[in-house]
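Weekly sync, protein design subgroup
Attendees: M.S., D.O., the rotation student, P.L. (late)

Item 1: inverse folding check
M.S. brought a backbone from last month's batch and wanted to see whether the design step gives back something sensible before we order anything. D.O. pointed out we never logged the input encoding, so this time it goes straight into the notes. Structure tokens as presented (332 positions):
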């Protein structure tokens, strides 16, 4: 397809072939391709995704990268890490992330892919013992629920109280249409900004994620915060608190400090502000999930419940033993 042989794993050769020889980055209109520190156009996956469909070679390179990643990260490596019973034992870290989420290492089993069919086949390699099934439990839209709780925004809280799909409910209010008249495109846009606000997304980032013009993104941004005005106020209050105190707190009082919140460099300060907005939401979510895990552990190990939960095993059991030593979630 490229007209000659080259090393697909060499960013330098790949850049030379697709950009200089095949000129695939030319005439892309408003699509801007990032450059490396040396000035060469980047061949990162996120950049090649922008060229998807431009030429079959791009699709093949992306397909190759997916296969190479699955092979090296999971298929070749995970079986070597199992014990004599073919069990995989990861290390779980209580404070493995800055927001308080749990992480795992040696190996990291929290990043098993799910987005593609091939990725899901890797996940299919994890099976239960004979006579058992694997069950997973999670909260529905926990971070958006926490945003509603912390901000006390009536419109956002009403969506959850009424049991609506949160993205459809937001789209209905922002676009001022009945819930039944919300289109897939309206819901997609609402979903983008719903998750974007949790990470302090600005208008330019919203434009890029929506795939729209800046004017359209600005209008949508304004309409969202006009509808959910208390959310907007909460985000500004959080930024001000972080600037004054140097930290933010979760609902349970756990703090995260931000060194760059008072920086004179705008891009460092802006990055710290985005983290400050997200920390109370993501951190409260992490706290709630750890509290829940502890309660589940106690429930299934209570002798009174032996008849019901006698054969239930919690896969985070050893992590829970660490939790038992802590008097309060605030000390995590």
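Designed sequence read out in the meeting:
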């Amino acid at each position: 397809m490229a007209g000659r042989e080259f090393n697909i794993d060499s960013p330098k050769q790949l850049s030379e072939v697709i950009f200089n020889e095949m000129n695939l980055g030319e005439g892309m209109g408003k699509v801007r391709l990032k450059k490396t520190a040396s000035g060469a156009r980047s061949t990162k996956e996120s950049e090649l995704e922008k060229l998807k469909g431009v030429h079959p070679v791009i699709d093949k390179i992306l397909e190759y990268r997916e296969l190479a990643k699955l092979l090296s990260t999971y298929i070749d490596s995970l079986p070597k890490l199992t014990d004599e019973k073919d069990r995989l034992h990861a290390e779980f870290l209580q404070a493995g992330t800055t927001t308080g989420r749990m992480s795992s290492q040696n190996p990291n089993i929290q990043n098993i892919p799910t987005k593609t069919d091939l990725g899901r086949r890797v996940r299919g390699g994890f099976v239960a013992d004979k006579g058992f099934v694997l069950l997973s439990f999670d909260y529905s839209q926990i971070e958006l629920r926490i945003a509603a709780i912390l901000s006390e925004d009536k419109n956002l809280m009403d969506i959850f109280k009424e049991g609506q799909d949160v993205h459809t409910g937001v789209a209905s209010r922002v676009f001022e249409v009945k819930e039944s008249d919300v289109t897939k495109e309206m819901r997609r846009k609402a979903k983008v900004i719903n998750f974007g606000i949790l990470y302090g997304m600005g208008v330019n980032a919203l434009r890029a994620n929506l795939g729209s013009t800046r004017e359209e993104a600005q209008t949508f941004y304004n309409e969202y915060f006009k509808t959910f005005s208390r959310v907007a106020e909460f985000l500004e209050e959080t930024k001000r608190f972080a600037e004054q105190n140097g930290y933010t707190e979760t609902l349970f009082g756990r703090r995260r400090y931000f060194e760059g919140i008072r920086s004179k460099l705008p891009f460092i300060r802006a990055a710290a502000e985005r983290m400050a907005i997200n920390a109370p939401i993501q951190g409260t979510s992490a706290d709630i999930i750890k509290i829940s895990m502890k309660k589940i552990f106690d429930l299934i190990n209570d002798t009174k419940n032996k008849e019901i939960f006698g054969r239930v095993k919690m896969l985070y059991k050893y992590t829970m033993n660490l939790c038992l030593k802590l008097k309060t979630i605030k000390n995590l």
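Discussion: The longest helix spans residues 266-301. Residues 317-332 have pLDDT under 50 and may be disordered.
Action: P.L. to compare against the previous round before Friday.
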